[in-house]
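Re: beginner question about structure tokens

> Can someone show what the tokenized structure looks like for a real chain? I only ever see the sequence side.

Sure, here's an example I had lying around. Input first:
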Amino acid sequence: MSLPEEPIPLYGAEYKTDPYPLYTAMRDKCPVHRVGFPSGVNAWLVTGYDAAHATLNDRRLGKNHRLGNDGWRALASIMPEPQHSQLQVHLLHQDPPKHTAMRKLVLDAFAPRRVESLRPRFQEIAGTLVTEFPADGPLDLVTLFAAKFPFLVLAETIGLSPALAKDFRREWGKVVAPVGPKDPRRPEYERLLHELQTYITDVVADNRETGGDGLLAGLVTAHTQGALSKEELDSMIFQLLVAGQEPVTNQITTMLVALLRHPSQLARLRAAPELLPQAVEELLRYDSAFELTTWRFLAEDDGLHGRHVPAGDSIIVSLCAANRDPGQFPNPDELDFDRSPNPHLAFGHGIHFCPGAALARAELQIALGTLLARLPRFRLAVPDADLKWVPAVLGRGVSSLPVTTD
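And the corresponding structure tokens:
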């Protein structure tokens, strides 16, 4: 594949369906490329494993949006005020020492030991969802399971009341992919954003009134004690509700699609469920739902893996491209449940390593294990080519996954 001199577009149906040929061509040429997105935003994309690992640990790079230059902010910071100032100061947009202090507030809730103690409850949730599947006709595993299970688990983990959990609408997650001020979809985008902010206000009020020892109540207490500003509190709840749901939903779908495309591996996993932990790690590597990281910036003009990058230009890392680098993973395009070691970057690396990684791993193991056990003969109900991949900028997944079970 030849690469253009202009910014390489990272969008479109062909790219979203299978980005890996493009990533291979980019990796083979050099580690860093200029890329473009539908909003007109350009960025520097890091592709190879070694370059990605180094970039994720590069202390020169900051995440705070104030580091972005005027050109980047004009195109990327298009969430309207006051929502932008009130919802965009969460962990993903912070640097030490503020990032360190905010991260400490969430770590206990997602600690591996606590996640393991909640496994029986998560298994109960998964089992109930499968029991409620209709008896006849194709099943859409997104609508019936993948879009529900992660949020129910998240609500249990962070202490979201059942009444508020019932009122959450998945479409609010679309606000992480904002549309420009002149886009005809802008009014709908702003409506969803206002609704989500109202919901966050209700979450704060509920936890202030009822208290408790959950993560949400702890964040509200941290605000009351002065450890978090009102904007930081709302932003962290915003991040929990959106980042704790959609990436896991998408990862369930990418894993199921990979298994359906590899029937021998599907049969092996069904016959040997004890392979689930290592299978999940390989499926995370093979097709990560968190395809690209969020923005990073250099405070001053500097070099990045052989390329000169101006201060304030956005830098992103392709986790998917890094996870298919043959320099790190032999036969990277093969799905191999015996791969060891498997140091994939699906959850990032460094100080911004996903704090919910242990929870996500448990969810994915339970989701796959439950579906394989309860749907012993499921297969695609539509041609593979008809699967619709979500047009998200940073993530991968399919919007529906119809299967038959006869």
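Each token stands for a local structural state, so reading them left to right follows the chain. The mean pLDDT is 93.
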